[in-house]
Amino acid sequence: MKPKILTTLARYDGRQFGADLIAGFTVAMVALPLSLAIAIASGAEPADGLMTAIIAGFLISLLGGSRVQIGGPTGAFIVVVFGVIQQHGYDGLVLATFMAGGILLLAGFLRAGNLIAYVPEPVVNGFTIGIAIIIAASQIEDLFGFTLAEAPANFLETVTGLWAARATWSGPATAIGLSTLVLIVVLRRVAPRFPGLILAIAATSLMVALAGLPVDTIMSRFGALPSRLPMPALPALSPGRMIELLPSALVIAFLAGVESLLSAMVADRMIAGHHRPNAEVLAQGAANIGSALFGGLPATGAIARTATNIRAGGLTPVAGITHALVILLVMLFGADLAGHLAMPALAALLVLTAWNMSEPGKWGRHLRARRSDQVLLGLTLVLTVLADLTVAIGVGVGLGLALRLRRRDERPPEWSPPER
């Protein structure tokens, strides 16, 4: 359970530091707008996303079991975070995140990191695609400039609310959103190593400011971003409140553990390395406790940002620490500029994130899978979208493990971690 940073620093040199510095800056330019967008989509304040990226991102790299893992708020949490805030308030989310961190610490000490192998792949794929659908639907409002009468509570209410608000469509918002989407895709294809994501969002947001377009920005909707970190504080602890929030804490802990270990496995394939699963789970626990102490969101290893780090040349956890420090510097000295980012541009980013989460390259393989795996994936997806993530995970994992027991005499197919 030894953190990877202790291993890598034993032979650290100037060449590695230079590579980590460049990679850390590059991934920070990706993480910055994503952290803001994920916080907003989760029903939290934009600053909460920055806080999470700084505190949790730093701790995951410092204590984690992967050389190149990048941590922070991720799209997988949007649905559960939104639900907890709606039902229990933001203070309830902070307490649930704090409890989830404790659960992950216990899981790490009990060496439960290896249990990831027992989570059926169709379940992971099903709730990931389901979450992607919910995220994409939730961003249509800002992408096209609709004005909904009230905040929808679930997917079906979102769809009906968008249809009812179709007359409020905004041409300028749509132009900014779709332009951002096209720019991000083009820049990723033309210069995949370049931080094109932040450039695309900055370019369209600058267009809004210069042309005086009637388009919402972070500042116009939420006010100015803070320019310093708050003082850490324990969430209000009471037995009744903790019992009430235990189901949410368990879901957060499950998602954080699964997502981080999947990300670490994908990173291993990209760098021909080997992560330490129990150290990674311990790091996730510490990161979620740290995030909660600063009033942040749940955090986990982020597959897309980890892949960006590797492609940018990141070699050790120093790159992840650098990424967190760069975001901190932006908060301290560039909060006003970040406040001018346009909401349709951030919505376009999340729509693209949702598309990548669904892994369209694997849809064909899902259709060719065993019928029982197709049913398991479809059931988990439908329950995620129409019911509740807790129900989807419980039913999916239960049925998946039952299927595994039934097939115990069969040779299982090769397990393939997602590459989103």
Your description of this structure?
This protein is mostly helical. Helices cover 70% and strands 1% of the residues. The chain has one domain. A two-stranded antiparallel ribbon has the order 1-2.
Please describe the structure with a list of short key phrases separated by commas or semicolons:
globular, two-stranded antiparallel ribbon, mainly alpha, 1% strand, 17 helices, 420 residues, SLC26A/SulP_dom, SLC26A/SulP_fam
What is the compact description of this entry?
This protein has one domain. It contains 17 helices and 2 strands.
Number of strands: 2
Main beta sheet, described?
A: 2 strands, antiparallel
Helix coverage percent of residues?
Answer: 55-70%
In the predicted model, the low-confidence regions spanning at least 5 consecutive residues are none
Strand portion? under 5%
* Mean pLDDT across all amino acids: 89
Would you tell me the structural class of the helices and strands? Answer: mainly alpha
Shape: globular
Q: How many distinct helices?
A: 17
State the domain count: 1
The H-and-E topology, N to C, reads as: HHHEHHHHHHHHEHHHHHH
Distance between the termini: 27 Å
For the largest sheet, list the strands in their spatial order. 1-2
Radius of gyration: 20 Å
